[in-house]
Each structure stands twice: as structure tokens, then as C-alpha cells.
Design a protein that fits this description.
It catalyses: a ribonucleoside 3'-phosphate + H2O = a ribonucleoside + phosphate; a nucleoside 2',3'-cyclic phosphate + H2O = a nucleoside 3'-phosphate + H(+). By secondary structure, this protein is an alpha/beta fold. It folds into 2 domains: 338 residues, Metallo-dependent phosphatases (Purple Acid Phosphatase, chain A, domain 2, 4-Layer Sandwich); 234 residues, 5'-nucleotidase,  domain 2. Helix content is 22%, strand content 29%. It has 16 helices and 39 strands. The strands form 10 sheets. Strands 9, 10, 12, 13, 14, 15, 16 and 17 form an 8-stranded mixed beta sheet that branches. Strands 6-5-4-1-18-19 form a 6-stranded mixed beta sheet. Strand 2 and strand 3 form a beta hairpin. Helix 3 crosses helix 11 and helix 12 packs across helix 16.
């Protein structure tokens, strides 16, 4: 049964303990303070719990964000609560529901149950909502006690986007009441429209092809926003599950928040998808945004981190304009649920809301039982602390399993006999996830939670057929992970912090070295930016690789269909589409082996640079495994920022 924490009403209850926002204090007759609250990229993190580490944590959880919601409602005369997508997938509870318990028609998804408990007013779809297929998605959202909108996922294309038939309603107009500064109640109509990256058609082609199509975000907005206005909306809020990217609009762009904010008729933009925080230092100096003012292309905008880490707040001072309302002033904030001290310690700023925990307590326990099942043993540790600087056992085991699987799948086909390589990336390698965000499996039993820790996403296995030249360029794309290093200088920063670790593919089956003194051939988005190359001494079976020779690369559906923009992986080179997830393949591999002996084979390294050292930040527990690192001279170098440990590498 859903436990309503607070009525879904628009008028917030006051609190003697919390001060009203200045807009509520100074609003006069004909003025009303409206507070817009955003969650985004929850990824099924309802409990403050790390299912991979099997322990409670203070950095995640909608149950924690829920406590902020109650306080934030009390600070404002009027408020509305919105979610910006990516709520159905992203942790073992999501996988348990999808693969074990199931979502038959009429069942209730735990994250929807939690959102109902909190009284959300509306949500949009994120790209990960499609990971488990359309039937799973639609059965899940059918339990929502709030509208879910998305304007650019289309079941039947019209002559124009305005004439499309969409998977869910493109927008909704919320009829609410606001109380102005004189205590008078007025009607207000709030338009809410949603968007998702059109790249879902590549990322989840298996589930979506022939069933839906995706429109360009800005084109869909230009078609639908005027209709929302014509239907009497006083203000329009865009739920943009799309990051803050380029200023200029490009057809089909993934991170379209800036040009979307420029669409006439949109008053407020809520963003997400990128797992960053706006306003904040993540976007300092970025063209098209004003961090101090909290604006995106001149409009109030917010991005509330991920996994419940923040509550996004946009405070509007609305002013009566005849029979309608217009936006006067605006203030923007992303309010965190925790803080990290100089000593690396995490301090929780809120407690969990018990009603939210209770709403999914059964599914939480079932998830714990699910992830604790042992599937085999490992006689050596599996960790990712050094995965970005040396060949790594956690990546190696994924590659081994993928190769093992594809060899079986291609037996008896026209591709049998071609050399099989395997591409895998470290998914948990610190970065935005923080200094605890690493794989760390000790010797002994390997449970499902450990496999999910090795491979975070429910991707399915793919194989692509490429040339030796494309293998080299694939590795050149990965080598954008590193900054250019000047020979003969000490203590240069090694990693490009704009480059996500999941795009650092290591290809097993070939050997190669990376020359850090050369410019990267590709930028973080996969665009060619130089004619040079960092990949040196690329060999296959001890011989220089033949650019014309053909190879099979075992990978996943995301990479094989264009995710990350890797040469040779645009969807046209796929020769095998597996029905199995990469995680399932790893589980089967471990079950068959019984006991695995993970050991990196050191098939890649850096080209030596005399008199040169670089700095590398990783998790503090990395020091325990320092003697296991192969092919690189690395030593502790004190504390890094934000709780990381710093190491120095002598090239």
C-alpha cells in the first residue's frame, strides 16, 4: 500500500523551525512564490545502500532526498515536485525486478512506489528507462500516481512533430492553486514537457527498432511548446533528460539543454543525464550558462546530480499579468544530502524518511537475498583502483568472459576462424562517483553483487567485424583518457577529467603501448582533432598488426551501435547480437570455471619518457594492491582532492 508522506497538494505546510524563502516573505498581492523541486537520475536508488559493497552509505538514496523535500516544501508558500528521468535502471534492485521478479501487468515497481509515497507531480523518461524493453517500461509506469511525459519518443510519426503519436503524453498541464503574498488563492496552469536523448534508438535498438522512433529534442519542443501555450499554460517547465552541451543546435544532439532553453515559450529547464551538478563548479566557464545566476541560455535551470545526491531548486517570483502569471525573479540552487570533509569523511546532512523506506522494504530485502548468492570463487582479488593506468584484473575477467562466449557463438558461422579480440572498460573507476567508487572483490566467494560490480550496466553482448586499421583507431579513441604529457617534466596530471572511464576501452588479444607525448587523435566526444597517433607497437600474435586484416571484437550493444563514437562501431559492423547480458555471460563463465584466477596480462603500457612523472588519483584502498600492479612504476604521493589518494607514476 502506498504511504502518502505528504498530500500531493500544491500548497506547502508551514514550519516554525524553518525560515521561509525571501520570495515567500516579500511577496505582495498579485505576487506568488513558486518553488520547483527536481530529482534526476535516481537509478532505483531508493535506500541509502550500496548493494555492491553490501552496506549502508550516506551519499545516495531517494529516502534521504525525501527529508530535503519536506523541509524545502516548508520553506516555500507554493511548491511542485518533478523528476527528470532515469529512475527504472541503475542498481541491483532494478536488475532484480527486471530479471528475477518481473513486472507483469498490474505489478508495482518499487521506485514508482517510493515516488508515489513522496507525491511527485510529474516526471519524464530518461534513456535508461528503455533498457529492459517497452513492455517492462509501460507496465512499470502504469503504477505511477503522477503523469509521465515525453515529447520526442514517437510510436507513429506525423507530417510534423506536432502531429506525432507519442509513447506517453508529450506534455501535461497541471491545474493548481497558488497563494499570493496577500493570502489570496489563485488558479495557475503549469505546462510540463519532457525530452530524452534520441540516441536511445542506438543504445537500445534491440528493444526499440520498429516499435518507436525518436525526434530531435529541439524540433519536438518547437512543435509542442506553442500548443501548451495555446492551451492556457501560464508557465512552461521543460524536463530535459539531456545534458548541458554545445550552445548551437545540431540535429539529433544528445546534450541539448542550451538550445532547448532557447526555445520560445519555455520558462524553466530542468536537466540531468550527465550526473553533474548545476549550478556549481562542474560548469564554471562553460559557454551558454551562467553559474552565478543559475541560468542556461538565459533561463533558470538546474541539474541535481545523481542517485538522489541533490535536490534541485528553482524559486520563481511569479507576478500576476492580467488573468495569467509571468516569471519575475528567479533563484537556483542544488542542495546536497551530504558533505565531504577535508579528512575525506562523509557527513550526512539529512536522515532517511521512514515512510519511503517502508514503501519498498520488501523489495530491498529481496534484492539483498538476490545479490548475495554465490556463483563461484576467485583466488585473487578483483579491483579497479589502477584500471586507468595499467592492465587490470577487473577488466581482464570481463574480457576473458566475452571472448569465451563469442568463440562459442560464432562457431559454425561464416565468421568462425577470424581472430577474436575483446574490448572492455572499467566502469567503476572513481571520477564523479567519488573515492569509494571502485570495484574491490576480495579472494573467496564471488556473488551476483560482485559480478554486477564488475559490470554495472545491463548491456547485451555484441560482436563487430573490423579491420586492423579500425582496431588501431578504436584504441586511439580510448587514449583520449590521458592529457598530453611534456617529456622531462615532473608531476603532470595524467587523466583528462572530462573523459569518462567507461569510454576507456582496453582491447585484449593485441599488445600495444600509449605514447603520452603525442596529441590525442580524438577528443572526449569522438571527434578527430589531430592527425597524430598515440598507439605505438600495436601487434597481434607478436607481429605488427595488418591494417587490412579482419578481426572480431567482442563488446556490448552500447558500444557496437555507436555509443561513445568509436571507429568501427557504428552499428553497421555488427555480426552477432547476443540474447544475453554481459553480466550473465560473466556469471556463466565463473560458474563454468568454478574458481577463477584473475590476472592482468599486461598487454598494454605507456611508452617510456625519461625524467617524466605524472600524478594519478584513485581510491585510498589502492595502496593495499600497489605491489600487484604490472608494467608501471607507481608510488604513493599523499592525499589527493575530495577524498582521493594520490600516486606518482615514473614514466
Amino acid at each position: 500500500m502506498t504511504l502518502i508522506l505528504n498530500r500531493r497538494g500544491f500548497l506547502a505546510g508551514g514550519s516554525a523551525m524553518l525560515a521561509l524563502h525571501p520570495f515567500s516573505v516579500r511577496a505582495q498581492g498579485g505576487q506568488a512564490h513558486l518553488r520547483i523541486m527536481e530529482t534526476t537520475d535516481i537509478h532505483v536508488h531508493v535506500y541509502p545502500y550500496d548493494y555492491y559493497a553490501d552496506k549502508e552509505i550516506d551519499t545516495v538514496g531517494l529516502a534521504r532526498t525525501a527529508s530535503l523535500i519536506e523541509d524545502i516544501r516548508a520553506e516555500a508558500t507554493n511548491s511542485v515536485l518533478l523528476d527528470n528521468g532515469d529512475f527504472l535502471q541503475g542498481n541491483p534492485m532494478g536488475d532484480y525486478i527486471a530479471y528475477e521478479r518481473g513486472m507483469p501487468e498490474g505489478a508495482m515497481h518499487p521506485v514508482i512506489e517510493a515516488m508515489n509515497t513522496l507525491g511527485f507531480d510529474a516526471s519524464t523518461l530518461g534513456n535508461h528507462e528503455f533498457n529492459y524493453g517497452l513492455e517492462f517500461l509501460m507496465n512499470s509506469v502504469s503504477g505511477a500516481a503522477f503523469p509521465i511525459v515525453s515529447a520526442n519518443v514517437v510510436t507513429k510519426m506525423g507530417a510534423t512533430p506536432a502531429e506525432d503519436e507519442t509513447l506517453v503524453p508529450p506534455y501535461v498541464i497541471l491545474d493548481r492553486e497558488v497563494t499570493d503574498g496577500a493570502g489570496k488563492t489563485h488558479a495557475i496552469r503549469i505546462g510540463v514537457i519532457g525530452f530524452v536523448p534520441p540516441q536511445i534508438m542506438n543504445w537500445d535498438r534491440k528493444h526499440l527498432e520498429g516499435k518507436v522512433e525518436a525526434r530531435d529534442i529541439v524540433r519536438a519542443a518547437q512543435a509542442h511548446v506553442p500548443r501548451i501555450r495555446e492551451e492556457g499554460a501560464d508557465i512552461v517547465i521543460a524536463l530535459s533528460h539531456s545534458g548541458i552541451g554545445a550552445v548551437e543546435h545540431e540535429e539529433g544532439m544528445e546534450n541539448a539543454a542550451i538550445p532547448l532553453a532557447g526555445v520560445e515559450g519555455i520558462d524553466v529547464i530542468l536537466t540531468g543525464h550527465s550526473h553533474l551538478v548545476f549550478p556549481g563548479p562542474d560548469y564554471e566557464g562553460r559557454e551558454g550558462v551562467d553559474v552565478a545566476a543559475g541560468t542556461i541560455n538565459g533561463k533558470p535551470g538546474v541539474m541535481a546530480g545523481f542517485w538522489g545526491s541533490h535536490m534541485g531548486l528553482i524559486d520563481l517570483m511569479l507576478e500576476r499579468d492580467g488573468d495569467s502569471w509571468r516569471v519575475g525573479e528567479a533563484q537556483v540552487e542544488a542542495r546536497p544530502i551530504y558533505e565531504r570533509g577535508e579528512d575525506r569523511a562523509i557527513t550526512a546532512l539529512v536522515e532517511s524518511e521512514e515512510a519511503v523506506l517502508e514503501s519498498v522494504a520488501q523489495e530491498h530485502q529481496e534484492t539483498l537475498d538476490y545479490v548475495r548468492r554465490a556463483v563461484g570463487k576467485t583466488d585473487a582479488p578483483l579491483h579497479s583502483y589502477f584500471a586507468l593506468v595499467a592492465d587490470d584484473p577487473s577488466v581482464q575477467i570481463v574480457s576473458n568472459a566475452q571472448t569465451w562466449y563469442i568463440e562459442q557463438m560464432l562457431a559454425g558461422t561464416e565468421h568462425e576462424g577470424l581472430p577474436i579480440l575483446s574490448a572492455a572498460a572499467p566502469f567503476k573507476a572513481g571520477g564523479r562517483g567519488g573515492p569509494e567508487y571502485y570495484t574491490d572483490v576480495r579472494p573467496g566467494d564471488v556473488a551476483i553483487k560482485n559480478v554486477a560490480d564488475l559490470y554495472l550496466y545491463p548491456n547485451t553482448v555484441r560482436a563487430v567485424r573490423v579491420t586492423g586499421a579500425e582496431v588501431k583507431d578504436w584504441l586511439e579513441r580510448s587514449a583520449g583518457m590521458f592529457n598530453r604529457i611534456e617529456p622531462g617534466r615532473e608531476d603532470q596530471v595524467l587523466l583528462n577529467d572530462e573523459f569518462p572511464s567507461y569510454n576507456f576501452d582496453v582491447i585484449d588479444g593485441v599488445s600495444y603501448r600509449i605514447d603520452l607525448g603525442m596529441p590525442a587523435r580524438f577528443d572526449r566526444d569522438g571527434n578527430v582533432v589531430s592527425d597524430g597517433g598515440r598507439i605505438k607497437d600495436l601487434t597481434f600474435e607478436g607481429q605488427p598488426i595488418d591494417p587490412e586484416q579482419e578481426f572480431i571484437i567482442a563488446t556490448n550493444n552500447y558500444r557496437a551501435t555507436g555509443g561513445g563514437s568509436f571507429p568501427g562501431a557504428d552499428g553497421s559492423t555488427v555480426v552477432f547480437e547476443g540474447p544475453d547480458t554481459n553480466r550473465d555471460v560473466i556469471v556463466r563463465y565463473i560458474v563454468e570455471q568454478g574458481t577463477i584466477s584473475p590476472s592482468a596480462d599486461a598487454n598494454w603500457s605507456f611508452v617510456p619518457m625519461d625524467g617524466t612523472t605524472v600524478l594519478f588519483d584513485t581510491g585510498p584502498r589502492a595502496a593495499e594492491y600497489l605491489n600487484d600492479v604490472k608494467g608501471v612504476q607507481i608510488a604513493p604521493a599523499g592525499d589527493g582532492p575530495d577524498g582521493f589518494a594520490r600516486f606518482v607514476i615514473r614514466l
